Task: inverse folding
């Protein structure tokens, strides 16, 4: 599946392939990497509108012929309806007021299915039902089939046919939304650059909303209420709001994630302790030393603050097929830790999740390249040499599984997002390479002059 983006902030155009296992966004500051990450993340939480043309068409098909044929054309129309939901909720995605949402007036998004999407739909089965008043709709799709059959069972005929029909439309659209989300979508998590603050100041952020509700309850007139909201409303992007909301599911998790082992590896290799939540929902860190000291997050080390959110998601939420977006994973990490994190991210990718990162780190970029080259070397029979450098099979990256997007400013103040070529040698990031080259030139010149004179 691909998303085609136009006129998103400074971004003139971008096309992102969501089917890739490991995606890297690179470019100078203020080139729209976070904006694009927000859009990709929000796409996984879109809904089909019951008022959309494609939903009305499917409901009509259910009533007239009791089945929906899942053609390529219909699938793309459904995907586009999901994408259109982002246009309708751009203020929620970016956490801005309606007047500020006008900044995105020219924003356009197109969702396009690929062969993998068609195969996924054909390969899945569906068996669900929906109760509507005194009628039950049974939805069934067999594996290897492109037909979604809908059987109806009526227990009692209602007198108010028009009202029942309207209610049916609403409930059927909800069921269709859930069916096609299952067929086409996966879950997603986004770890924003604010992840340190979100967990550290969770109580303050949530407490503000409670105080605002209390103040609203004391308001006498609509005018005073409007004034209160305008002066005190606090807006956060969807990704930040969901990070706050999802903390509660980590307090008493009902099940362990398929990726729990990778959360534990992060704790062992990078944090040297355990991240968890206490009964109040506060993130705490238990040191691995014999003392086993328990520290609240705000007095834990910076790396604990930065990595704790990824640990919690891996231990309690992420499933195969899910997307994890990480804005600047290198924050607060020593180069050695950045390299170790790169290895763990590659293992997560090779175990079935997908990862997208935006980064300025040459250490992470070079290590991803190393893992691409290591895979090419293993394929050519050099497994022993690769193993000598400490790489395991599960850390190696196939170049076909990696996508790199370069955010390139033009002379018109716009940014064009281009896909970088990836070979068996990896890829290059000009914005990083040029900076390192210039710095090395200065360093070498100064060294030579100091040592040998002009």
Result:
């Amino acid at each position: 599946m691909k998303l085609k983006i136009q006129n998103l902030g400074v971004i003139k155009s971008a096309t992102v392939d969501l089917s890739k296992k490991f995606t890297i966004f690179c470019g100078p500051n203020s080139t729209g990497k976070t904006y694009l990450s927000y859009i990709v993340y929000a796409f996984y939480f879109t809904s089909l509108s019951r008022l959309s043309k494609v939903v009305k068409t499917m409901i009509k098909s259910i009533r007239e012929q009791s089945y929906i044929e899942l053609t390529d054309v219909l699938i793309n129309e459904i995907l586009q309806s999901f994408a259109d939901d982002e246009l309708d909720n751009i203020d929620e995605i970016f956490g801005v007021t309606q007047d500020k949402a006008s900044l995105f007036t020219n924003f356009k998004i197109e969702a396009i299915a690929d062969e993998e999407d068609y195969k996924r739909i054909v390969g899945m089965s569906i068996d669900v039902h929906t109760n509507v008043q005194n009628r039950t709709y049974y939805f069934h799709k067999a594996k290897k089939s492109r037909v979604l059959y809908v059987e109806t069972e009526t227990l009692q005929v209602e007198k108010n046919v028009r009202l029942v029909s309207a209610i049916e439309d609403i409930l059927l659209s909800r069921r269709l939304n859930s069916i096609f989300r299952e067929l086409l979508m996966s879950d997603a998590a986004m770890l924003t650059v604010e992840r340190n603050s979100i967990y550290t100041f969770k109580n303050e952020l949530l407490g503000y909303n409670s105080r605002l509700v209390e103040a609203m309850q004391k308001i006498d007139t609509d005018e005073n209420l409007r004034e209160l909201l305008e002066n005190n409303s606090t807006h956060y992007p969807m990704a930040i709001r969901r990070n706050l909301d999802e903390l509660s599911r980590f307090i008493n998790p009902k099940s362990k994630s398929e990726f729990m082992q990778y959360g534990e590896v992060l704790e062992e290799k990078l944090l040297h302790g355990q991240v968890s939540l206490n009964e109040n929902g506060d993130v705490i860190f238990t040191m691995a030393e014999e003392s086993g000291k328990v520290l609240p997050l705000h007095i834990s080390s910076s790396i604990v603050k930065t990595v704790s959110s990824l640990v919690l998601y891996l231990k309690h939420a992420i499933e195969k097929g899910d997307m994890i977006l990480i804005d600047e994973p290198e924050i607060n990490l020593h180069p050695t830790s950045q390299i170790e994190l790169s290895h763990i991210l590659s293992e997560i990718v090779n175990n079935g999740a997908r990862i997208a990162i935006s980064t300025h780190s040459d250490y992470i970029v070079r290590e991803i390249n190393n893992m691409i080259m290591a895979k090419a070397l293993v394929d050519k029979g050099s497994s022993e040499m690769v193993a000598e450098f400490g790489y395991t099979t599960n850390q190696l990256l196939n170049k076909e599984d990696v996508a790199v997007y370069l955010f390139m400013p033009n002379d018109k103040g716009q940014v064009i997002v281009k896909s970088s070529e990836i070979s068996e040698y990896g890829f290059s990031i000009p914005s990083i390479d040029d900076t390192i080259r210039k710095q090395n030139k200065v360093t070498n010149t100064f060294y030579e002059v100091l040592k040998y004179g002009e």
